[in-house]
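Recall the central idea of this unit: under ordinary conditions, the amino acid sequence of a chain determines the structure it adopts. In this exercise we apply that idea directly, starting from the sequence alone.
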Amino acid sequence: MDRPRREVQRRRIYEDIVEYLLEDIRNGVYPVGAELPSERSLMDEFQVGRPAVRESLNKLERMGIIETKPGVRARVCFPTVSPLLEEMTDAVRMNLQSSEGDGYFQDARRLFESALAREAAKKINEAQLSKLKGVLKAHEDVLDDVSSFADRDVEFHKIIAETSGNPIFSVLYHYMNQWLLEQRLATLTIPGQSRKALEAHRKIYEAIAAHDAERADAAMDAHLLQVREAYQNQPS
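Accordingly, the structure predicted from this sequence is:
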């Protein structure tokens, strides 16, 4: 079958500007917190028009390298993994459409969140523990409301991720949750699953409250394994 001809565009000017500015940022010419030159200065430096400069700044902002606000110059910010994970979202969702890809992500979630529970048992403070207990109690009031129970479910796991004090873990949890949210909702529609999740959360909470890292790890792993099996064994 003949396919129509398609044009392949050459590298765009703004991509070169991005590379130059990234090199300057890496070399400390513009450290975290520093302002970049004005658009006019960048236009003069690179001998390009305003659209190319603006496109390069937009690209750097999407990468999480700079932040821009109306009326002020772009400023270099401390980079996070959020832009990288956002770029992965479409590929992840395609992976989740296959049983093999789904299995890989379920395994990743088990490993990741079990480790988070272990860390929570070591690091959780009284305020965080009280908050976790409050969310657990709130589960009991919405057992028959899938949407509300799912919200509490997400919050329970989120608090555990945040106890690490590591913002990368919190961001990873956020995206892992977003990628698997449809599965969470589907699993909670299974009769009796909300009660199983509640009981599992109780065991996780008790282990964390006792600062028993091994038990917290095992309780989280058992919980997520049960959730995975429940999802996979749903009637077609």
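Residues 38 and 73 are 6 Å apart (CA to CA).
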